[in-house]
Write a structure and sequence with these properties.
single chain; about 300 residues; mainly alpha; 14 helices
């Protein structure tokens, strides 16, 4: 028994260490830059969106709203109170939809993590999330003219935890919170990826997510729901799948439905949308994910 266990541990450590080396640099960079933005840029980013409201941009305001959602470093439960404060100040719901949708899908830290998947995946993730925010804003603008889409009653922005008078210590404390919040999930993702690479034949992954691309897109959009717990934790998992034959379109679909249907995000969205509009939100996320994957695989032909 011991003779069997030791080689298996060696094999596991081999795959684990490769993933750790590939991911750790991007994770550390994401932690540092994400904390810098959170501590020193968050308020300025949100103030910029409010300043744009005064310019009466109309439907065009959806574009910067989606971009600001991406650069906002908040999680979903931090985004909703901010969006609630924007709504109290009279911001249009299409702008709010664009801001919230792109903020759900992507943030600066996750963008830096995604660089570990390669330049093509990084660009696809950024562009697709940006366009998803814009599309969500347009959908709310044209289909919810006669009634409100969001209900932020009871939500209010809580006090910031970045209050240490020493700016360096403020940054260090924020960085520590980010490491504690994401570190275990990154290690879990690397562990699961190493197990996949050791025990799941590459041909099986290629058959599931690569060769039958239409079925692979559907599977990726579906698998993204239960497996997505933390954005950083899914990067090593995605990297392993892509190295085993997952198509770029399937990866793109996973990167949309995963955060959009993350369990904690679903709970928050259900509160502010109500059941009917919550179902519409889910349907929108899945359809956009499948459309994105189709474009990547069959139109852009990116592998």
């Amino acid at each position: 028994m011991k003779e069997i266990v030791v080689p298996e541990l060696i094999y596991f450590w081999y795959y684990f260490s490769i993933q750790l080396v590939q991911i750790s640099g991007y994770w550390i960079l994401g932690m540092v830059l994400g904390s810098l933005i959170s501590v020193f840029g968050k308020d300025k980013i949100h103030a910029l969106l409010m300043a744009l409201q005064a310019k009466k941009l109309g439907v065009l305001g959806i574009i910067p709203a989606s971009m600001i959602g991406i650069v906002s470093p908040l999680c979903m439960y931090g985004t909703i109170p901010i969006a609630a404060s924007f709504a109290d100040k009279g911001m249009e719901e299409d702008w709010l939809a664009a801001f919230m949708m792109s903020s759900i899908l992507l943030n600066p830290q996750l963008l830096f993590y995604s660089a570990g998947l390669g330049p093509a995946a990084l660009i696809i993730r950024f562009v697709s999330c940006f366009l998803c925010g814009i599309t969500a804003g347009l959908a709310v603008r044209f289909f919810f003219k006669k009634r409100k889409y969001f209900n932020f009653k009871g939500f209010a922005a809580g006090p910031s935890r970045d209050t240490d008078p020493n700016l360096f210590m403020r940054f260090i404390k924020n960085l520590g919170r980010n490491i504690r919040a994401t570190g275990p999930y990154v290690l879990l993702g690397i562990t699961i990826s190493a197990l996949f690479q050791r025990y799941v034949p590459p041909d099986a992954m290629a058959a599931l997510f690569g060769r039958r691309r239409g079925f692979g897109l559907l599977m990726a959009a579906t698998v993204g729901v239960p497996l997505y717990v933390c954005g950083g934790g899914t990067i090593p998992l995605l990297l392993g799948w892509m190295q085993s034959g997952m198509s770029m379109g399937s990866a793109a679909a996973f990167m949309i439905t995963g955060p959009a249907a993350k369990i904690t995000n679903l709970g928050a969205m259900k509160i502010v949308l109500g059941l009917k509009d919550f179902v519409l939100y889910l349907a929108f996320a899945v359809v956009f994910a499948l459309f994105t994957g189709f474009v990547v695989d069959y139109v852009l032909l990116i592998t």
